Amino acid sequence: xxxxxxxxxxxxxxxxxxxxxxxxxxxPEIDLDKAARDGANGRAAAARAVAAACEKHxxxxxxxxxxPAAILARMDAAAAAFFALxxxxxxxxxxxxxxxxxxxxxxxxxWVEYLxxxxxxxGAAPLPESSDAxxxxxxxxxxEYIAAVRRMTCTVLKLMAxxxxxxxKDAFSRLVLDKESDSMLRVNHxxxxxxxxxxxxxxxxxxxxxxxDPQIISVLRSNDTSGLEISLRxxxxxxxxxxxxxxxxxxGDALQVLTNGRFRSVPHRVMVNSARPRVSVIxxxxxxxxxxxxxxxELVGEGGRRCYREFTWREYKTSAYRTKLSENRLCYFxxxxxx
Length: 339
Ligand SMILES: O=C(O)CCC(=O)C(=O)O
Ligand SMILES: [Fe+2]
Description:
Oligomer: single chain
CATH superfamily: B-lactam Antibiotic, Isopenicillin N Synthase, Chain
GO molecular function: metal ion binding; oxidoreductase activity
Pfam family, one: DIOX_N
Keywords: Iron, Metal-binding, Oxidoreductase
Organism: Eleusine coracana subsp. coracana
CATH class: Mainly Beta
Distance between the termini: 51 Å
Bound molecules: 2-oxoglutaric acid, fe (ii) ion
CATH topology: Jelly Rolls
Cofactor: L-ascorbate
Helix content: 25-40%
Radius of gyration: 20 Å
Largest sheet: 9 strands, mixed
CATH architecture: Sandwich
Strand content: 15-25%
Order of helices and strands: HEHHEHHEEEHHEEEEEEHEEEHEH
């Protein structure tokens, strides 16, 4: 079990000036079911709305997503059961991607425990040899979830390409459907915050510190507990109202590069401010490691400036994972303003 020292606990308590929650966000909504029912016009309108949301915020909400409610209910139950295990049992699941409080290897701490799993073309990465039956059934469920969410993710990515007016409508979705796509699934559990007195008076804890997601897009669903906050272009923070019936989409760094900066990789964080636990499940849609990423020529335009140099996804991921969460990880890949 990871026990935080008093000093470490203080690091995840926000400074006193940030004690109050920011205002509620007005999150753009895209109804995929309606877009499909309304024919070509409905689809074109949804594509335009998706592109507008990605340009303005890098964030929107998806309703009518088509992921069966039964899968979502089973995921909720399975995640709750896993995180309710004794600490010793959870610690034994490190081969299954379990970790607590420490995010990455660069000293970032958060009031969170999580499972982080690689995703292969057929679902979640193979189980460790010693897995028991309950782990296997959890894995089967994860695979069903991943298949359904990946389908929806690709619908969203096609709408993005259409909204950008790209000739190749699968310019983004093909990267996620590639058999070597480096996608991940993360299940986060933010335990209710401890008593104020244990925190020396700080009412809000950092669950997951400010960052952008490195992949193409992240597709998130949570329970009814809020806590997710996004940063707007003016640098202010807004709090995203929880909605267990919808998915939330974040534009990631790779998509910001592919769109030459037109779509915005949205800075976000999770604050633990509730007496109830927050559970979120995030599908990170990533390209194959060898994929060369660069601004799409159609989006640079003739004589236009390429804001990023070409690099492979492996190169970017390695570089991003060497930095602290809150660092601007893309700056090493930007071109000089004169080029
Ligand atoms: O748990 C959440 O709601 C978001 C967490 C997050 O941003 C991440 O895992 O990258
Ligand atoms: Fe994130």
